[in-house]
Amino acid sequence: MSSSAVRFAGDRGRCEQCGTELAPHALACPACGALVHAERLKQIAASAHEASAAGDLAKARDLWESALRFLPVESRQHERIRTTVTGLTQRIEATPSAKPTAPAQSGWWRRGGAAIVSIAVLLIGKLKFLLLGLTKATTFISMFAFFGVYWSVYGWPLALGIVVSIYIHEMGHVAMLRRLGIAAGAPLFIPGVGAFVMLKQHVDDPVTDAKIGLAGPVWGLGAALAALGVYAATNAQIWFAIAHLTGFLNLFNLIPVWQLDGSRGFHALSRTERWIVVAATGVMLWLTGQRLLFIVGGVAVWRASQREVGPGDRRVLATYVTLIVLLSWIAKGVG
Questions:
Q1: d(CA 314, CA 45)
Q2: CA distance 51 to 41
Q3: Residue 26 shares a structural domain with residue 80
């Protein structure tokens, strides 16, 4: 793709290089490949280089991420910038940071009242951006509304645990999107339904989409294991309940249907790999008796029998099977 400016005649944009009329939301000229937002991209690049030179890697990464919105996904420029974003993310995560001090135990804490604080303490040392979504008004407000709905049903300790576990799940998607250099919004909660992260770019590669989809249950598994760890240390039953329910919710997300994370993961698997998932689901159903696996396995059989299958990816397969095994054990006591 070449760089060029665009001239406008009335409400219609035309490519300055070849004069071709452009669609309202075009990112590049379909005739000659000139970039529509070339000047804006130059300004963003200059600001990003200045931020990097000043040592502000987070600002540089955010600027490069904003540039991705103005580039076609299939362009060489998009690929180069995505690589740059990935490199900056790795440098930021590798920067040493002080570890927070764990709060002292107390009777109030033992009753599970501080679920959100305790899980955050366990994860915040390595995953500094876990709190990033809470700075977004839409996330915080929708999260609070979600919490209110579940508080009225389950009481506030369990409701708080559910909200935190779902938030961690969604931030798993955000973390993978950042690593891949794909623009997306902050998590948005829908009371009574769940939460989602809105992508600002279309992902065509099934393996990439599978990595994004399964990152949520992977982080959700981490939240469930953290709750089990606190339960082992305190013997507070509320943590046990939070761990089981978190495992169940993330296992539900592995059903390979519609827009669930399991469907995105299944999209990348070959026929043989899909049948391996079916077999693993059957084994875990026999071992745990978790009835939700009837649905996971039934839909997986249907997907494995379809004519269209994915290219296959061993890492995605290993992640999917590991999630089925561990989440089934954790969710054993639910349902």
A1: 37
A2: 15
A3: yes
Question: Token pair 């606190």 is at which residue?
Answer: 230
Range of the domain at 25: 6-94
Whether the full predicted model's pTM is greater than 0.90, yes or no, is no
Measure the CA angle with vertex 15, ends 14 and 21; round to 5°: 40
What tokens does 319 get?
């992640």
Q: Are 263 and 303 in a shared domain?
A: yes
Query: What is the number of domains present in the chain?
Result: 2
Query: Which one of 50, 70, 94 terminates a domain?
Result: 94
What is d(CA 243, CA 237) in angstroms, rounded to the nearest whole number?
A: 10
The answer to whether residues 44 and 137 belong to one domain is no
Handedness of CA 297, 302, 304, 305 (dihedral sign): positive
Q: Are residues 34 and 123 located together in one domain of the fold?
A: no
Altogether, the residues listed in the chain come to a count of 335
Q: How confident is the chain (335 residues) per 10-residue block, as mean pLDDT?
A: 41 68 72 79 85 84 82 79 83 61 43 50 51 56 63 72 83 84 70 63 85 93 91 89 91 92 93 96 95 95 92 95 96 71
21 in the Ramachandran plot: left (φ > 0), alpha (ψ -120 to 50) or beta? Answer: beta
**How far apart, in whole angstroms, are the C-alpha atoms of residue 311 and residue 87?**
27
Considering the domain architecture, whether residues 90 and 177 belong to the same structural domain is answered as: no
